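ok so i was messing around last nite and threw this chain in just to see what happens. nothing serious, just curious
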Amino acid sequence: MKKKVVIMLIIIVVAILIIVMSLSTEIEQNIDNRYSNITEIQPEEEISEEQNRLAKMNLYFVDSNSGVLCCEERKIDSKNLIDNPYKYIISLLMNGPETEGLTNAIPSETKVNGVVLNQGILVVDLSKEFLNSNGTDSIYEIVNTLSQFNEVEGVKFKIDGEVKDGLKEIYIKKNWNIVKLRKMLYNNTVMERIDDLQYENLKIIQNPEWFCFGVDSVLLTEFARDIKRNSRIIDLGTGTGILSILMSKKVNAQKIVGVELQEDVAEMATRSVKINGLENIISIVRSDLKDLEFENNSFDVVITNPPYKKAGTGIDNKNEKQKISRYETTANLDEWLKIASRLLKDFGSFYMVYRTDRLTELIENMKKYKLEIKRMRFVYSNEQSQSNLVLIKAVKGAKVFAKIEKPLIIYNMDGTYTDEIMQVYNKK
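result:
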């Protein structure tokens, strides 16, 4: 009897277990069915190709030496450009430059009230502190920087929601030489632009990530207008080719040779010569100055805008091309002048723009190589500033006699260009 009871209990327990397992499976299936329509949470939407393209931008600041706008390359997290990219870029400008020798013209206490794009015109609303800026550089720091966005055709300013006197215009890219920014790919990697020089229909190819010419080069070509007709000219350290290209029209040169060390920069300068149809006048030679194979005393004129800063001074520039353009990395001042003197004919002319604070050193080295100063003109940002640049003409083997010309002032005190500068740029 007891055996039968035990067997019955075992059977009941097994049956209960089977029922429980069955119910468990059914519950799991019901749970799976219940949530089968729920989709997996997706990560944040990927950044578009256009936004990725804007991850590298040029911010414009004022060169503390020459007083002109220069670009500083920045790598920007694309995520910061999703909400309001224009406002974010302005905030970077207000934080100031990271490159030695550049300074921010926007008053530090300025606040951004809002930035709105309306039919291609970017309306930038700033606080009243913006009006404390000295001159128009603060305006064009913003304008030139924001104009890199393809959709921005111009920039209009408001102060605390109102249009103020002196800020009623719609601003486009500054620089007398930039009419329309044209970006294009070269070898699928290099961003370039073609700038209209607004002189005799001349154009020039530049890469903002490398180095762009400044007002010093333009002033030098104007200073050198007294070059004799049919002269044979060599441009040492031609870079973009700006000196050679402008001189081809400002003087009736027989031949101009532009010398550039960097292969890709020389190639770009060569293309600039070609787009202007100047191949019969200008030739670009890729060479170290120390390796030039031209005969001694073979040129009537040497013109140059060399690097201003000694190697090893200041903050190391990670951009190698900008470093070579700014610093004496391949040849120092003494070597530069020695080469210039070797190439010049006796009584040939030497033209140069240089930093005023190195004038004593410059004169000492020029005398060493028989380059006697004949004309000198100091350049000032405004009438209350110190001279940053000096324009020099010397003659090889000439007697001692120098003429100090009247100062050249770039800006009026209200930040507008002086009449002379406007004439230089054919604006008056």
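not much to say yet. The chain has eleven helices and 19 strands.
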